[in-house]
């Protein structure tokens, strides 16, 4: 609980539809459904009631965000007080759910799916990276860092609250060290490969841990000559290099491609070429030059940050997939991904089928995949199904 809050939580009254949604596994209430605000500062825990005063649980209250309430528990304050001990128990349960995962770097807390709305925690060996995408978690980040340090024996906790999701919540962006030493470079393993990243300055929390299982699966199915567009630090490229004859890894960001080259050298992979280039341009040029590949990976950054950008994003995805399918030999493997939450899985599949139709090539859909198991979606909240990864074979 925030240091300023004590005693019984204030009450917020919501519409009948919103209360019904809370009772039936929908954990959000938008501001338009708030009938009577709680008169409390942003970030406080509040008791939620319907128009008749019947309880509908306890939520985090946001003063400015369009998303006014995020559900914590459907129980009343007398049944389940939400205090520091409550947060500790939720964190402990979330960490315990991942105890059997044989990975030294993974997500320990995944927001709403772990009953901690707006809180995300990644572990890189003995270091943690924390992100808060709700006002309620933002006001508690110091407390959360201390609890996480205690529960995991982490030597460092880094705050990476510098993403665009903070803008939607009308929260300031920041990145800083919450606990531990100032050095934020860390080495960690994914499968047989060793990566080095900067937890304070890399993209997301330093790496894309949600793609870990897809990296390894691509290596199992791929082969021959491979192309990894939007390679970042080389997750797909290095996984593929163990099986492929050669891998061309494209990355536009100079800092990322420098780290990619370091990772390639660190793992002694002589069959990987890291090229600083725009993937859209290179795919077009490779096609014009008649180049062909046995494996192509498309894992671009989010192309639709907001709903209004989804249509433009779908055109970009289609263009990329048309070019990739043109470059692939028959019987090859295309791994095509989208991390845009505004692009739903059926829409992404429809786009992919449209791209196949554009190049007049039927495709086999081998697997429809999502993020690694440490990044679960919450049933009833399709917004948490953000990552799509289709493994397809052109005929």
What's the gyration radius in Å?
Answer: 22 Å
Task: List unreliable stretches of 5+ residues.
Answer: none
Q: Can you count the helices?
A: 11
In the CATH hierarchy, the architecture of the largest domain is 3-Layer(aba) Sandwich
Beta-strand level of the residues, as a percent range? 25-35%
List how many beta strands DSSP finds.
20
CATH topology (level 3) name of the largest domain: Rossmann fold
State the separation between the terminal residues, measured CA to CA.
57 Å
Oligomer: single chain
Calculate the mean pLDDT score and round it.
94
Q: What is the CATH domain class of the largest domain?
A: Alpha Beta
Sheet with most strands: strand arrangement: 16-15-14-17-18-20-19
Structural class: alpha/beta
Q: Name the overall outline.
A: globular
What's the CATH H-level homologous superfamily of the largest domain? Answer: Vaccinia Virus protein VP39
Give the total of domains.
3
Sheet with the most strands, sense and barrel status: 7 strands, mixed
Specify the helix fraction band.
Answer: 25-40%
If you had to describe this structure to a student in words, what would you say it looks like?
With about 400 residues, this protein is α/β, with parallel strands linked by helices. Helix content is about 30%, strand content about 30%. The protein is built from eleven helices and 20 strands. The chain has a seven-stranded mixed sheet with strand order 16-15-14-17-18-20-19, sandwiched between helices. A six-stranded mixed sheet has the order 2-6-5-4-1-3. β14 (about 225-230), α7 and β15 form a beta-alpha-beta unit. α2 packs across α4 (about 140-150). The longest helix has 18 residues, at about 310-325. It is globular and about 70 Å long. The model has no long low-confidence stretch (mean pLDDT about 95).
């Amino acid at each position: 609980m925030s240091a300023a809050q004590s005693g019984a939580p204030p009450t917020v009254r919501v519409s009948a539809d919103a209360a019904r949604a809370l009772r039936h596994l929908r954990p959000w209430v938008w501001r338009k459904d708030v009938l009577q605000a709680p008169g409390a500062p942003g970030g406080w825990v509040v008791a939620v009631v319907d128009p008749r005063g019947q309880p509908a649980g306890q939520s985090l209250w946001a003063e400015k965000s369009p998303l006014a309430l995020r559900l914590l528990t459907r129980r009343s304050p007398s049944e389940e007080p939400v205090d520091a001990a409550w947060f500790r128990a939720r964190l402990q349960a979330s960490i315990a759910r991942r105890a059997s995962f044989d990975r030294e770097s993974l997500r320990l807390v995944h927001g709403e799916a772990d009953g901690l709305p707006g809180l995300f925690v990644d572990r890189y060996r003995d270091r943690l990276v924390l992100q808060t995408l709700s006002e309620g978690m933002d006001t508690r980040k110091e407390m959360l860092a201390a609890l996480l340090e205690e529960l995991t024996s982490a030597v460092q906790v880094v705050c990476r609250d510098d993403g665009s999701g903070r803008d939607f919540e009308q929260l300031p962006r920041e990145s800083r060290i919450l606990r531990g030493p100032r050095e934020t470079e860390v080495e960690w393993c994914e499968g047989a490969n060793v990566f080095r990243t900067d937890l304070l300055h890399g993209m997301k929390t330093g790496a894309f841990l949600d793609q870990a299982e897809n990296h390894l699966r691509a290596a199992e199915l791929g082969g021959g000559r491979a192309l990894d567009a939007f390679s970042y630090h080389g997750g797909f490229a290095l996984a593929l290099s163990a099986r492929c004859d050669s891998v061309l890894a494209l990355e536009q960001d100079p800092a990322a491609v420098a780290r990619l080259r370091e990772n390639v050298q660190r793992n002694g992979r002589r069959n990987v070429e890291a090229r600083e280039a725009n993937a859209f341009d290179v795919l077009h040029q490779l096609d014009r030059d008649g180049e062909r590949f046995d494996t192509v990976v498309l894992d671009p950054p989010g192309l639709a940050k907001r709903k209004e950008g989804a249509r433009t994003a779908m055109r970009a995805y289609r263009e990329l997939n048309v070019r990739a399918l043109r470059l692939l030999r028959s019987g090859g493997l295309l791994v095509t991904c989208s991390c845009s939450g505004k692009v739903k899985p059926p829409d992404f599949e429809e786009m992919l089928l449209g791209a196949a139709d554009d190049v007049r090539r039927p495709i086999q859909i081998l697997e429809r995949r999502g993020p690694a198991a440490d990044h679960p979606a919450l049933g009833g909240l399709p917004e948490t199904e953000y990552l799509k990864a289709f493994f397809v074979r052109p005929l």
